[in-house]
Amino acid sequence: MSTAKQTMLLGFGLFVVSFLTILSRRHDFSNISNQRMYLPHAHRHRVSHYRTKVQNFEQNSTKEEPKWMTIIREQQATKKRFRATMKLNMSEIWTKNKPTKDCNDTRFLNKTLIDKPRKFNRRVALASFPGSGNTWLRHLFHVTTGIWTGSIYFDAKLYSGGFPGEVSDCRDPTVFAVKVHDAMHSDVMKCYFDEIILVLRNPYNSILSEFNRRKGASHVAVADEEEFLTSDWERYAKMKINSFNAVLQRWLELCSQKSSKHRCHITAYQDLVQNTTAEMAKILKHLGLPSNRLRCLDIPGFKDGPFHRKRTKTTHNTNRTEPLCLLTQGTQELLSRVVADGKEKLLNLRGGREFAKELEYQLPTC
Length: 366
Hints:
The chain contains eleven helices and seven strands. It is of the alpha/beta class.
């Protein structure tokens, strides 16, 4: 075979290989694009900045996914198993989606009548940094609305302790509000919200509360004082301080978007503690829900709920060294910078000035 023919065949072969490679890549890109275009509700909030991060991460198969993402995925599998065995009877559903005034009666919504009334055809995020009273807010929501809340996570202790909506995800129309700690978490689960109820709490108290929960192995337990003398407290506090800064920034960015106008309601944790009924009235008004069950909070035992940690000798002991002061100077300074940065973000947010003080509420001095 002549040299000219060999060169011609070689060139044709290279052309075919290049064409097939390009075609294959276009097919892969089309599949990825189709996956990302899936939106359960077209009008839901988008978190485009964080979604881009998640997409880039998912497309890079050489990296191991972060632990929090693995945990959330595992929780979804657990929820699915629980839902498979969960059979609701009519007494557990508001058949006409009209909760009664009975303070002891909380049910699921009737998904076949979700547009009647239309006020229930929304996704509401109960957002907060861990340890900021999200579980307590869910209880208050149950009492004052008569409707169960859901969660993008799964906590078996909450489910067995009286929160049946714990197995419901953000797309379940039988629950009205959904617990979420981080906007990035909701984005991974493709959860898009119409309303955001954001609870703000002093980051130190939030971190301390969450450390108590983890070390005490329950929502109302407290850690032994010796736990704060270990390196684990230093490591945990530093990690969570950095996390608080990122989480707060993501929620405030959502609340500051023009598309989110009148859709984001902020409440300070201490205001919720000191003026529970008044703060819940504001939340219900923001959501356009009736307030005829607010009186239930005046009934002894109805306000605290089963998972609200009470003050104890361990959580409020004036004779012991404040856990904050057991942290290194560098970690204490990091906390101060995060609080100052959070206050500045709130001051720049329309209507956020009144909540800036919450970030340093009763912050101990060392």
